[in-house]
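Hello again,

I reread your note about wanting to compare the complex against the isolated chains. To keep things tidy I'm splitting this into two emails, and this first one only covers the full assembly. Below are the input lines as submitted, including protein chains and any nucleic acid or small-molecule components. They are followed by the predicted structure of everything together. The single-chain runs will come separately.
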Amino acid sequence: MNSSKNRYLASPYLIWSAGFIIIPLIMVLYYAFTDYDGRLTFSNVSAIIYYVNIKALVLSVIFSVVATLFCLLIAYPLCLILTTVIKNGSSFLSLIFILPMWMNSLLRTYAWQNILERKGVINGILAFLNLPPFYIINKPPAILLGMIYDFLPFMVLPVYNSVSRIDKDILNAARDLGADSFDTFVRIIWPLSLPGVISGITMVFVPSLTTFVISDILGGGKILLIGNVIEQLFTQDSDWNAGAGLSAILMIFIVISMFVTAKYDREDIK
Amino acid sequence: MSNKLIDLQHITKSYSGNTVLDDLCLYIRENEFLTLLGPSGCGKTTTLRIIGGFETPDSGQVLFEGKDITALPPNKREVNTVFQKYALFPHMTIADNIAFGLKIRKKSSAYIKDKIKYALKLVNLDGFEDRMPDSLSGGQQQRIAIARAIVNEPKVLLLDEPLGALDLKLRQDMQYELIRLKNELGITFIYVTHDQEEALTMSDTIVVMNQGYIQQIGSPVNIYNEPENAFVADFIGDSNIIEGVMIRDELVEILGARFDCVDKGFGENNPVDVVIRPEDIDLLGPGEGALDGVVTDTIFKGVHYEMCVMSRGFEFVVHSTDYYPVDSKVSISVHPFDIQIMHKPESEDEKAVEIDE
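Full-complex prediction:
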């Protein structure tokens, strides 16, 4: 009786996931495998082999991998410092890193555009100091910078959580048993923080792979990522079938990446 | 049991202006089971952490076999710690946990394998090699924590309230287990606890601490029977602490009645504190003992009855196997050698003791 009661409590969630996750997913797959007249076709999906599309996809994967790597390289030492070196006030410091998350990401990206522009903030200062100008806007580094800045909090949060949850006595025990700082990191801190690292990687990699806003604003429309291609198919070409076809391909990549990380998660943490 | 293995000299430690240890001097001999006993906040854990190397004293020195190790990090010290909450590595098997220190020291895998087997046998957990820590009960985890420490053959094992999280029956079993381990290994144990029974059962030497000061150092029998001040008397077991006047050597006046005792050297007509253990009071019929009184409360405790006897405004706690119902008229009698006389607190550190009560 109790369990049937509990099942009722889950019904809003079921309705929610059916209405906003399962049905849209089926629609995407339906459009992906049909043509304009509703006939079954694989041409939307196989369109990925066209040079423009495959180039955009490869570029997206490279950008996402690099951005994820940079986020990890910045976030991990930061979290170590926050949890071990600065014990007091570390919550305030981590708040500073989380705070930008509360701002609209579009707004943040436009801010970077203003900063990096040919006549933007940085070049204004450089000109004032009689230094040569600095152009990275509309180039890959600008897009990477945008991705790293936008998605860094998604790496910091889970990593900070997992690192800060490690019992201080466990670290003391490692030291007590003869481990120096390096051994303690390699044998204790890193393996115990892996769940956080893995969810951080997923949370940065997936939005980086699918973004079109950052590449649009900071890339000046000159660099097409797979997100931009799909967006153009939907909005400019109104070709929902072709857009859905490439989306389905992208989904496969995301599922693979989540599968790989989930597998590591289980293996290392048990 | 003669050499000073660890020598703490004039250790002072404070946290943000709050003094935890004040000029503490203490030495630990080889192969001793020494217990630091006291209420929470008395500085016992801080003392242990200073020996382990997790805290650095503000001033003073830690000598180990005569060498100054005050600034040496924990991984360079020949001591190992068993932590209060076990602190097993949750991502490693039991075997890997035990092997941790040996792997760091780059021992051969055959040696490590033998050691794991030996250590698990020693703590009665053979065959647990491939289990994960979270699949073990609290008592089993604590044994593994001990096994993990002793495979490194430390000269000293530091134990920080290791039985605190276990239930009563298990705690008593583990006490005997620890004594057996200590005898088999022949190493020095430094044990921290707030449980006086634990301290009395296991220790060679008990160090009673309060508010950063050592109150008394002695054997369990010595500490129990001859507490040096009111704090020790009150903290170790139940006791009746009564203000009295030392009339002359071997005669003390309590609540207007005179008792023979065996203490000397307290002067004449000097105010003193008198300690009488509840089990040392004999209840007799009215008029037969030194002080008449009325039983105000009786509780059955299993082995004995705990009774409160009101006499001339003071409530004595009495342990006796004889039953006296509430409102019985009785009298109190005490053997001279069961009366313990203590000086009234005079110095600063003794006064600190009084405030706490």
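For quick reference: The two ends of chain A are 34 Å apart (CA to CA).

B.
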